[in-house]
Write a structure and sequence with these properties.
mainly beta; four-stranded antiparallel beta sheet
């Protein structure tokens, strides 16, 4: 009888709200000085070029990943001594979205509910000394769905 009562609790794969959320940040520099696009950034480049067709070159600078408990925040070092502040506001909702608040460099904070395995790109106003524009793309996990 005990096995029947315990078994349903063992098959729950959804994390509890206390489970930290894994946040991944991709740091990209874009330019209008060349047309070299890192193959891993092909889709991002297409989306950014819809708003700013002058940006033709995209290079991957780094990726950062941190586990952040719900209700807490952290900063992620970008490039040129710029930082991104990330706060996990809410764990997965009924649609499987995690709510984050981001404070990109030289921009107001933005809150959004991110979808599983989808990056949210932000074109910041920051430019390097070489004139490259800083772009960040953010994704949060876990995105474990019920089967």
């Amino acid at each position: 009888m005990t096995a029947l009562i315990v078994a349903p609790f063992l098959v729950i794969a959804d994390p509890t709200p206390e489970t930290p959320v894994r946040v991944m940040v991709v740091i990209v520099l874009a330019t209008d000085q060349n047309q070299q696009v890192d193959p891993r950034l092909k889709d991002l480049a297409k989306e950014v070029q819809k708003r700013d067709p002058k940006l033709t070159g995209f290079k991957l600078v780094a990726t950062e990943s941190k586990s952040i408990p719900v209700g807490e925040s952290t900063t992620i070092n970008l490039t040129d001594q710029q930082v991104l502040k990330v706060q996990v506001d809410r764990h997965k909702d009924e649609n499987g979205r995690i709510t984050l608040t981001l404070q990109p460099p030289a921009m107001d904070a933005v809150s959004y509910a991110c979808a599983c395995d989808k990056f949210f790109p932000i074109v910041t106003p920051h430019r390097t000394k070489a004139g490259e524009q800083l772009i960040i793309a953010v994704m949060a996990k876990p995105c474990t769905g019920t089967k």
